[in-house]
Amino acid sequence: AQKITQTQPGMFVQEKEAVTLDCTYDTSDPSYGLFWYKQPSSGEMIFLIYQGSYDQQNATEGRYSLNFQKARKSANLVISASQLGDSAMYFCAVPPGSARQLTFGSGTQLTVLP
Amino acid sequence: DAGITQSPRHKVTETGTPVTLRCHQTENHRYMYWYRQDPGHGLRLIHYSYGVKDTDKGEVSDGYSVSRSKTEDFLLTLESATSSQTSVYFCAIRASGAHSGANVLTFGAGSRLTVL
Question: Is the pLDDT of residue B1 over 60?
């Protein structure tokens, strides 16, 4: 079965510093890339960033970037210049061999300290 | 705004009663999903639909059924609710190619179900 591992249940970072959230995946078909979502305390799921499996460069979206290491099957989310509003749960997700659905990791709770 | 509405947003019910959660979309997307979210498990797929009357099971489908008689509505039914089904339920739609060619899932606001 598809397995997504987020090894950091909780992380703390000082405001304005960078933080890296880890994600590794185990999939038989890496064709469909990897997604990161943010869930603030209000509960909504917000799409952050996508990395295509065959993209030559790491994806970036504003302060969010991915450190994608295909051989290691990892796609870590890097948040630069952390803000208090970045405090949230972060999930990585991978299509499990089919583009029809997403399998999610268990998440990392990030707390940004003032 | 992806135009996804979940109802009810909150429900408390008793063990053994039937419960139906509704997901309504306004943008005619083909794929719709039901996930549940529990502490320590992230989101787990219950069922999904790839068209009217076309559905498939996800990772945690036992105890749940779904129906999709119209493109815009995807219903999740708990025939006889149990305390283990206390959870937050999220509906999602898939916007094909919406972001750099990726099939991004967009989620509704969630429905919190408590089974006593």
Answer: no
